[in-house]
Amino acid sequence: MKLKAEYQNIHVTLGGTEILKGLSVQVPEGMVTGIAGPNGCGKSTLVKTTFGICPYRQGEILVDGVPVRRMGRKKLAREVGYVGQDSGSVFDFSVYEVVEMAVPPQWDRQKRKEAVESALRELGLLPLAGRGIQTLSGGERKMVFLARALAQDVDFIILDEPTNHLDIRRQLFLLDYLKRSGKTILIVLHDLRLASHYCDFLYLVKEGKAVCRGTPMEALTEEHVMEVFGVAGRAVERPEEGRDFLLHMP
User: Fold this and answer.
1) Within the chain, where are the H helices?
2) What is the pTM of this model?
3) Disulfide-capable partner of 83 in 18, 159, 193, 227 (CB 3.0 to 4.6 Å)?
């Protein structure tokens, strides 16, 4: 199994508090790897270390075997797309302009136009191309920022809680699209039902450490779910519907 990225023994301390305590995550090429855990466990911090948003004091991050510390910002942007939790914008650029910002600058005008329109078309956003980004709903903005990541023409996309602000139809559309894309996906998810259904591999994180990793069926056992989330639940395999997550209500 070829790895697209590796987070090796990552330690992060912020404001005197140790957030990540030797967290290691492997991201296989062409698959969907999920990270789940309670609020404040370090999920978002881990993905932000990739881009230097949160500096790590120990460990190493590799993309295609190359430490990201050795990559310049331009090279990293050519290798990795990112969709964060924050989909706000200070300036009211048009949707088209927001997506175009991610297109490699060396491309000619026609190729840039084709890349932007293709990304917008893939996500059903062409009708919004002329709209100001600040006029859109939170869910629409989230889709625009995903389109921007697609326009980067990268094979590896990191997404931090991408289903926030999306209605159920857009959640399923987005995750179906990512699953079918063949791209390498590292995704932070809050919803264990979505994680169980769409992830090829899943890490459960608690207090800055990985409690377990494996397929959703291996990770989302009753024992692991109780240890990480403090609730009773488990992943199940349904013959006609695929994987699902059952929460056992008291």
Assistant:
1) 43-49, 73-79, 95-100, 109-122, 138-151, 168-181, 192-198, 216-219, 222-229
2) 0.92
3) 159
